[in-house]
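Shipment paperwork, digital attachment
Item: protein structure file
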Amino acid sequence: MNELASARLRLLPPDGVNPAAVANFLSRNTAHFAPWDPPRPAGLATVEYQREALPLQAEAFAQGSCYRWYVEQLDAPGVVMAKLEVSGVSRGPHQSAFFGFSIDHAHEGQGLMREAAEAVIAAAFGPAIQLHRLQAAHQPQNRRSAGLLQRLGFTPIGLARGYLFIHGEWRDHQLVELLNPKFSW
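Attachment content:
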């Protein structure tokens, strides 16, 4: 279950990806992600930072608190072009988590993120992770994320005012959810 695959993609867990590939992905997309992401820790897009961060992410993956995958195209191994995560996993009566994603600006509009997201959702709702609900959030003006989430079947919950501090101010986010229709204890 750790590594996932689709027709064009390999989704690697934190302990299966090269720290330099992750650093390059983040470095290439610093400006692209800036309007949508909270402030980054200093040095995030460096190999040194990723060498320390990836083992911690692998530990969270193994413990079941955060599942993160780094995406490579089958025809471009070693080049990370996207990241997806199922984080903040809540067990017990919730059986839910947050769903997040980001893709390299050079790969937008090719259906790759939808392909990767479908694989991650299948894993999240499958027997290994077994969640009942995924929640995601996007800024209302982020049409690409809104469209992808809608195509994946997420439905609106409501608007969360001042949800995240991004690009120098508190930003509103549209909250959406996806329920697992086959969930059972």
